[in-house]
Each structure stands twice: as C-alpha cells, then as structure tokens.
Amino acid sequence: MKRLLGPTALALVLVAIAGALGWWQLQAWQDRRAAEARDLTQLTPLPLIDVMGPDDPFPGADVGRPVTLEGEWLPDGAFYVSGREDAGRDGLWLVVPLAVGSTSDPAIPVVIGWTGAQDPGLVPSGTGSVTGWLQPPEGNGSFDDDPDDDVVPQLRTADAIQRVDNDLYSAYVVATSPRAGLEPATLDSLPEVGTFTALRNLLYAFEWWFFGAFAAFVWWRWVRDEQAVMEVEAASVD
Fold it and tell me: Measuring CA to CA, which residue among 95, 165, 103 is closest to residue 135?
C-alpha cells in the first residue's frame, strides 16, 4: 500500500489547488457583479458635464449617480409619464427639459416630481438649477394610446425629442427635491447587472473544478488498476 501514498498525496494537492482556484474565480465573479450593481445615490453630486456629454452614450456604470446641472427650462416641451405609483396611488411624473446652458444648448429631460393629475401651473420656466439622479432612457415596450396628448407611458428620448428643437442627452434626471406643489419621484437607483458580466470568471471557476474532478478521476482509475495489479501479484505469490 505504500506505493499508493505518493500518488494519493499528489492527487489531494491537485484537487485542493483546483478547488481553491475555482472558489477564487467564483468570488471574483460575485464581487464584479456586486460592483456593477452598486448604489451610487449617496455619492457627492458631480456636474453633469463631468459624467457625460450631450453626444455621449449613457454611461452604464453611473446609473443613479447624483449630478448637478444648470440652464434654462423649456416649458413648451413639458410632458407627463403615466403609471407612476406613490404610496399605492397611481399618478404621473412631470418631466420638463432643461437646456444645459442657454435655451439653444442640448437639453436633458428632468423629472421634477410626482403628481396625481396634470397641472400646467406646476411647469417651471426661466433659469433652473437641479440636483438629481442620472437615469438611462426607458424602453419597456409600452404603447402610447394617444400620441397627440402630453402623457406618455415611458420616458424615452424618442418621445421627448419631438417636443423640443434642442438636441437631447441620452439620459434623464430625477430631481432629488421636487418642485413646489409636487411630491418626490422615486426610482430604482441600482443598475441591472448584465447577463454576461464577469462571465469569464465564472467559466474559469467551472474549468478549475473540472480539472480537479479530472485529477480525482485519474487517481481513482490509477488506484483501481494498481489494486488489480497487486491482487495478481499476491495470487502469483500464493
């Protein structure tokens, strides 16, 4: 049996190493996914221009990041987003584009608060300064039953751009403090974790565990063959 000790010890070492490396890769997979889903809402607000420009695609790692912006309200471009609940009440988001700079500069839709009904008197005008959470345009596939009114079922750039002459950012902002007469708009601030985020780490984990299982299988086959050889040797001696 002594000749089994060395290979058995080696097999144990290989299996332990493969298992540990697989576990390490699994932890890396979990950590990277957790990092992608981090909550940014409590960070110090950054100027919008430091996070994205008017022609930039939405920065996926900055979903929910607080930003600050100043400019001119575009009240003619105001609209409402339906299907927004607040404490169990169905209502609307009031959205007003804010031209970041002057009235001719690119604008970004700003959710200035929640309301139970449409009220043109709540729409701001003139200069504005906003602190809010950055969000990507929505796209849930909802159908607009009446494209001629000021109510849409989702906050899409394609719907907002039809209401203003300005270029639009590929994002919107939810104001952290509502305008007078409105209630705060709530949001799910955490970004969704992509299906393929850190997938390589997960595959590496399975690969290492496969190597460990293969080493254990080779050891088992070798032990079985050695035992057969030892039985034949013992029988010949007898």
Answer: 95
